[in-house]
Batch of 2 targets.
Target 1
Amino acid sequence: MRSGTRRPGVLALPATIAAARALTASLAAALRDRPGSRPLVVGGDCSLLLGVVPALLTVLGPAGLWFADGHPDYLDGATSDTGETADMELAVLTGEGAPPLVSLAGTVPMVDPSAVVLLGHRTTGLDPASAAEVGRLPATLHRIAAPELLADPAATGRTARDLIDDGAGTAGCWLHIDLDVLDPSALPAVTYPQSGGPAWEQLAEALAPLAASPRLLGLSVADFRPDLDPSGDYAERVVELLRGIVSVTPATR
């Protein structure tokens, strides 16, 4: 559980909006300058998606989202213990949250819940607040929880790929990886580690069908703590994981 004592609201809201708009402008320019490319966006936390998705909408149109995360990130200013937008960006993207954030792209929701696959979130052994967060998820938002991923990573990836197919009315799908989707035994260098997740190999196997999909528009990765990785060994594993995605040649439609 992410915990703390604070007054309700969204922390650093003006700065968050400014950062999102700056990223939107930069990514939109890159998408226009290099059509057909699949960008990689690296950021501190998952709130980077508040800049990514508006850029996709601006240049490509509505997009789906493959969202690999140990948490649903479906809180708001009233329910989050921290007030961090990293607690709430999936809710914001699908139309729930502070109006200045929800309206960043001028289109609400920025992503239809039915065009989202939440992959690898924990559903067992949760405290009441975390269980309530899972319960806030829209019924139409697709979910493949960590136990399913662990049981058959490859099948999980194929299912996630096929849940948002060519008939979904989207230009393609963006892949986002919050590294806390991994089990802490594999990667302890994250902000909010949570047990019950996959090992490196299992995550790579689950993501392989998404990496090979011709519908992949690009990817983002967040929540690596280099201060908890003095040797750099975990950083090398992150690079290896990303290399395995970006080096894949998309399959033919």
Note: The radius of gyration is 17 Å.
Target 2
Amino acid sequence: MASDHGLGSLGVEGATAAAHALSLPAEAYGNDSRLEAMWAMKAYNHAEVYFNLISSVDPKFLKLTKHDDNIYSSFREAFKDLDIKVLNTDDVKSNEAKERWRPFCNKFEGTVEDFNYGTLLRLDCEKDYTEENTIFATRIQFFAIEIARNREGYNTAVYKSKSGKS
């Protein structure tokens, strides 16, 4: 996932301007394509850091937030049978799924910082972020699914394949 197009390529002034722009309320913008590009870059950088992390550290030992226990138990209570190894887009994006996800997500408003920010999520947890294997989800959906994947051992395949462990 290495790229020369990260925030570092903007320089100090550009990265500072991007950080400031991303901190303003959504009402300050319309449908500004530059803002969408900055959000996409921020989501991509987050995905890159996360994938590098699970590639180099056994995911079973990762703690993504200080609320991991609560997120995990609430997630598994609400989504007992969700196959998190290989998600179907409809598991997150269908109208029915959105109705199921909404109360779960809203439960973490004020608890998990930026709980509803856009984040990239892998569909198949054994594969890297690619156009075919990635969807846009909220940060709390990302945390819920990735915390479960880490605790239930699904992300261990990435760690083993990238670290040479068997």
Note: The beta strands are 118-122, 134-138.
